[in-house]
Structure formats: structure tokens, C-alpha cells
Write a structure and sequence with these properties.
alpha/beta; Glutamyl-tRNA Synthetase, domain 3; 4 domains; three-stranded parallel sheet; three-stranded antiparallel sheet
């Protein structure tokens, strides 16, 4: 059996770091098992689904390092869903219901008031052709529910019916179908909820493992029943914890919270985003891994915690900085060139330890090329004037800084911060930065003299 997984986003908005977690989990699992990864757009909601969002999702996944083996669109497969729905209708497993949303809510409220679970009573299943025709004459349109197999032949006498599976993340799981309402598979307007199209696609596309968020655990028992009703093999299931902010707030695609596109635009590295999205909420240390191969090697669904996967967005910056500090010049050469940064590998080696983002190197390159708004405190003016006079003659090399500061120390008696900081401020305009010994040759003699008042 070829391991086949899928990521099935709705192209109704931009994906965020929370959405990237199941995408990455599925892709990493497929690559680790030598399998296939399907990107499947759940775009049957024609009103809200947009091609621009589908393209954005593909772009974001590519940036993260996820390359689909196959791309599918549910909007092109409606005929298959119609066939499956008809098969269930013919078997007496899909029945029409005519209650309005308000009527259903009032019924649920009454059940709660009586201390009963708000489970649908299968009223639609009791109705005969005449009653249904009367509803149709009123202008009502039916929505269609699947009859759960939680009875011994009489659907109005339910019994406890446990559906169990060994979850790839959560271990042994059980759902009692008698505690659930018959699920609506087709809306009153004739469109499908995600359940039936998803199952039909999983069957047709040979999906062997369904890896998704823990908010789908309760749905799994229902879906297993529908797989079996359609005469199909049931895939393995894995439900991972959901990524939330540190205060437990969920991430919303519609609000654009921490969208992959915005993180990319901020200059974050894809591997810092992928590392955080995958390793948070697992028994593994959250660390920035250098490439997807390293993440594949580290990935293991059994390490996913049962507790929540909380993260602080600020942690991304820390992870990114750690990653940038280790990036070789070859990994950033094209980007540095595009920003107009020279100096080659030598300059990058000097400045990367001071960069949270690769783009931070631009500000440090401007320290080299100027102009620089140098700062001189009033109490340092005489010292800076002496510094100009004591700058060693000849070409500026890495030895220049040591010789220069030694001469100044002997002449002025200054040492430590009082010796180094005034020079850093007047030459770079900053209080912190790369080693001045290494930066001085890049700044060059003329720039040094021009910046010393």
C-alpha cells in the first residue's frame, strides 16, 4: 500500500500558521513514509471560494517547502458526490428533512431544558410522501441526513454503538454513535457539506491516512460509518492538537492572524515558521531546523502531546534569529545581492550574528556605505577629536581597531565602554552591532575620517 495523505483547505481566505500545521504534518508524514501528498481544494462553496485564494495557498505552501504530488479541486467532482448521495438514498441511508434552522434550534432548546442531549429525533425519517409533498408545496426545501447505524433495525430505538480506532496521535479512541445526531450531508440549497465530498475523495484518491486537527475527533465515528456504508476501506486517522496563541486564542483564517503571507513579507525564514508549527505541542524541543530534511527526520506523530499547542508569536523572532545566525552565505547570497548588499561571504559572516532577519543586513551595509547619522555626546566631543588625530596611518585592516583604541587609551586614560562606545556611535550611529574590528575595514579610511567631527 502506498501511503497517501491530503491537505484540503477551503480557498476562502489566506492560510495562517495554524493551517500550516496539518499541511506540514501530512507532507512530512508522506515524505517520511515514501508516500504521496495531495493538495485538495475544498471549493464547493462557489460563493466564497476564490481562485486568488487557491493561488495564494499554493504560493504559501511552496514557500514553506511543501510541494504537492497532486492538486485536486472538489468543484470538478460534483458528479461523483451526486453518485454517492444517490447510492445512500437508494439504500435508505439518506433521508430528507424539512425543519428550518429556527425550528431545529427551538427543539434543541427544549431538549436541553428537559436535561436531554440535543440529538435529532429522526422526525424527518418518520414522514411519509404526503407530508413531504406538503412541505414542498409550502416552498420548503429538504436537507438530507445520513442514518447512523446506531440501532438494531429500528432507527427509532437507538442503542449504544461504539466506533473505535487507534489514533496515530491520541491512541485508542471511541465514539458512541447513539450520542450523535444523524449528520446533514446535503444542505437545503442542494450543496454538499464537506463530509460526503471529503469521504468520496478519500475513497477515489486512495487516501490511506487522514491527519488533521483534534477538533475533528467527534466527526470520525460518523465518517467511519459513511465509509463503511459506501463499501470502502476506512483509512487510518490521526488527530493532532491545534496551534493557538499563548493565551489559548485560536487562529482565524478570516481575520488574517499570522498569515503565512504576512510572515513571509516580514522577512521570516520558512524553516523558522515550519519548525515552530510542527514542533510546538510535541515532546520535541522547539528549535529552528535548517531544512525540511532535518524536520522530516525529527517528525514523529507519536510525539504529539495531548495538551494544547500554545506558542508566543514573539517566539518566531527568536527562532528566526537563531536560524539566521547559522545561515551560510550560499543560502542568502541571492537575497543579499537583490538588496544591493556587497561584501561577499566575509561581510555576511561578520554581520549575521546581529541579524534577526536576513533583511537586517541592509541596515548594517548602510553603515558601511553611508551616510550615517553618527552621535556624539557632549562629554565625548574632545575624546572624538583626539580619536581623529590618532587614527593610524595607512590602509585600514582588522589590526587598525586594536592599534587605534590602544593609542586612545594611552592618551586619554579611557577604557571599556567609555573607550569603545563613543567610537561606535559616531561611526555607525548605533549602540550595538558587529565587531568593530571586523567592520572597520569595510567602512574604510575616508568614511571614518568623514564621520569624525
Amino acid at each position: 500500500m502506498t501511503v497517501t495523505v491530503r491537505f484540503a483547505p477551503s480557498p476562502t481566505g489566506h492560510i495562517h500558521i495554524g493551517n500550516s500545521r496539518p499541511a506540514l504534518f501530512n507532507w512530512l508524514f508522506a515524505r517520511k513514509e515514501g508516500g504521496r501528498f495531495i493538495l485538495r481544494f475544498d471549493d464547493t462553496d462557489l460563493e466564497r471560494s476564490k481562485q486568488e485564494y487557491a493561488e495564494s495557498i499554493e504560493t504559501d505552501l511552496h514557500w514553506l517547502g511543501i510541494e504537492p504530488d497532486v492538486i485536486e479541486r472538489q468543484s470538478a467532482r460534483v458528479a461523483r458526490y451526486d453518485e454517492a448521495a444517490q447510492k445512500l438514498k437508494d439504500a435508505g441511508l439518506l433521508y430528507p428533512c424539512y425543519e428550518t434552522p429556527d425550528e431545529l434550534e427551538r427543539r434543541r432548546s427544549r431538549q436541553r431544558a428537559l436535561g436531554r442531549p440535543p440529538v435529532y429525533d429522526r422526525a424527518g425519517l418518520k414522514q411519509g410522501d404526503d407530508e413531504r409533498a406538503a412541505f414542498e408545496n409550502e416552498g420548503r426545501k429538504a436537507h438530507w441526513r445520513f442514518v447512523l447505524p446506531n440501532h438494531d433495525g429500528d432507527p427509532f430505538e437507538t442503542r449504544r454503538t461504539d466506533v473505535s480506532w487507534t489514533d496515530l496521535c491520541r491512541g485508542d479512541q471511541t465514539v458512541d454513535l447513539a450520542s450523535l445526531s444523524d449528520p446533514v450531508l446535503i444542505r437545503a440549497d442542494g450543496t454538499y457539506l464537506y463530509t460526503l465530498p471529503s469521504i468520496v475523495d478519500d475513497i477515489d484518491m486512495g487516501v490511506s491516512h487522514v491527519i488533521r486537527g483534534e477538533d475533528h475527533v467527534a466527526n470520525t465515528g460518523v465518517q467511519i460509518a459513511i465509509f463503511e456504508a459506501l463499501g470502502a476501506s476506512v483509512p487510518a486517522f490521526g488527530h493532532h492538537n491545534l496551534l493557538t496563541t499563548s493565551d489559548g486564542e485560536g487562529l482565524s483564517k478570516r481575520k488574517g492572524a499570522l498569515s503565512i503571507g504576512s510572515l513571509r513579507d516580514e522577512g521570516l525564514e520558512p524553516m523558522s515558521v515550519a519548525s515552530l508549527a510542527v514542533l510546538t505541542g510535541t515532546s520535541q524541543a522547539v528549535e529552528p531546523l535548517p531544512n525540511m530534511g532535518s524536520l522530516i527526520a525529527k517528525f514523529d506523530l507519536t510525539n504529539v502531546s495531548r495538551s494544547s499547542a500554545k506558542f508566543d508569536p514573539e517566539e518566531l523572532k527568536s527562532l528566526n534569529a537563531r536560524l539566521v545566525h547559522e545561515l551560510p552565505f550560499a543560502a542568502v547570497e541571492a537575497r543579499l545581492s537583490q538588496m544591493g548588499i556587497g561584501g561577499g561571504a566575509e561581510f555576511w559572516e561578520i554581520v549575521r550574528g546581529n541579524c534577526e532577519l536576513v533583511t537586517d543586513a541592509l541596515a548594517l551595509w548602510k553603515v558601511v556605505t553611508g551616510p550615517v547619522e553618527g552621535r556624539v555626546e557632549e562629554e565625548d566631543r574632545e575624546f572624538v577629536a583626539q580619536a581623529k588625530a590618532l587614527l593610524p596611518e595607512g590602509e585600514v585592516t582588522e589590526e587598525t581597531w586594536g592599534a587605534w583604541t590602544s593609542a586612545l587609551k594611552s592618551e586619554t586614560g579611557r577604557k571599556g565602554r567609555g573607550l569603545f562606545m563613543p567610537l561606535r556611535r559616531v561611526l555607525t550611529g548605533m549602540d550595538h552591532g558587529p565587531d568593530m574590528k571586523a567592520m572597520l575595514p569595510f567602512i574604510g579610511r575616508q568614511n571614518i575620517l568623514d564621520r569624525l567631527p
